[in-house]
Amino acid sequence: MKIGIYGYGNLGRGVETAVWHNPDMETAAVFTRRDPKDVQTYGAPVYSADQATDFKDKIDVMIICGGSATDLPEMTPMLAKNFNIVDSFDTHAKIPEHFAKTDKAAKDSGHIALICAGWDPGLFSLARLYFSSVMPVCTTYTFWGKGVSQGHSDAIRRIEGVTNARQYTLPVPEALERVRAGENPTFTPREKHRRDCYVSVAEGADKERIKHEIITMPAYFADYDTTVTFVSEDEIIKNHSALPHGGHVLCSCRTGQHNENLQKAEFTLSLESNPEFTASVITAGARAMHKMHARGITGCKTMLDIPPADLSALSDEELRKSLL
């Protein structure tokens, strides 16, 4: 299976590494908006993003490694016109709009497209589906962090005057423990998480304006208690270069004729490298898209639409023997 990588930042590098770990795949090409001569890969050839359509018959799945704030809403439908594609779009509130645009582009061109293929949305979406299906009378909770949100950090970096940024999402400990105790409380977003932002700015930049733009940004920060700390670029590089993340999906309910038995389920991720793990999810999604397209399936899909076996390189017989 020949994989194309469109965009070569932290996520793109992670995808190239993930492909290397999958013997049924190879990276055919990396496409960049930078000068290709300035991009050093682990071995994959590099081309200008403008050359991508020259490879539409040479790539089985194009993995799009852009930011959700401004890149993917444009890139994903555009590339779905010429390729089977996968992206990791993670702005939950805008998923229906992104799905509709991508679905039309993919169906019109006879391609298949997987969006939101990360760990949330993505693997956490599957956990929420499984938990709520087997425990229908329950409330499902999702907590993120502590960790760096790449999408939120990218959104801050797009603000005029910002030179670098790291945004940490932190669960509110008291809220998490109440859920684990089986209380089934009701929370606002602000009661479940807070967001800490470390931001470096250009000389002379208006810090008050930048702070206001951050804490009022819809779909990112407006609904949360958010702190903004201005630091030097050197401090971000020294103290905030790692990209850890993780989180929990929890569900609890009572079963039995008299609701006498408390049932609890929890799915947890603890990640030292968010982009490398996300890249691994995307890469498995690319395999599924290749399999499904070979069966004649087109249009936009999410992780909820993929038969689990399609994610694996193992045969159905091997899966039944080793995992079932």
Description:
The chain is globular. The strands form three sheets. Strands 3-2-1-4-5-6-14 form a seven-stranded parallel beta sheet, sandwiched between helices. Strands 8-9-10-11 form a four-stranded mixed beta sheet. The chain has a three-stranded antiparallel beta sheet with strand order 7-12-13, sandwiched between helices. It has helices spanning 10-20, 72-80, 95-109, 123-134, 150-157, 173-180, 189-192, 207-215, 233-239, 274-294, 316-322, and strands spanning 2-6, 26-32, 46-48, 61-64, 85-86, 112-114, 139-144, 147-148, 162-171, 193-201, 225-230, 245-255, 261-271, 299-301. It contains eleven helices and 14 strands.
Secondary structural class = alpha/beta
Percent of residues in helices comes to 25-40%
The H-and-E topology, N to C, reads as EHEEEHEHEHEEHEHHEHEHEEHEH
Largest sheet: 7 strands, parallel
Distance between the termini: 26 Å
Q: Provide the low-confidence segments as ranges.
A: none
Widest sheet, order of strands: 3-2-1-4-5-6-14
Summed up, the helix count is: 11
How many individual β-strands? 14
- Bulk shape: globular
Q: What is the CA-based Rg, rounded?
A: 21 Å
Strand content: 25-35%
Q: Which whole number gives the mean pLDDT?
A: 96
Annotation keywords:
324 residues, 4-stranded mixed β-sheet, alpha/beta, 7-stranded parallel β-sheet
Give me the secondary-structure topology:
Elements (H helix, E strand, L loop, with lengths): L1 E5 L3 H11 L5 E7 L13 E3 L12 E4 L7 H9 L4 E2 L8 H15 L2 E3 L8 H12 L4 E6 L2 E2 L1 H8 L4 E10 L1 H8 L8 H4 E9 L5 H9 L9 E6 L2 H7 L5 E11 L5 E11 L2 H21 L4 E3 L14 H7 L2
Parallel strand pairs: 1-2, 1-4, 2-3, 4-5, 5-6, 6-14, 10-11
Antiparallel strand pairs: 7-12, 8-9, 9-10, 12-13
Helix pairs in contact: 1-10, 2-3
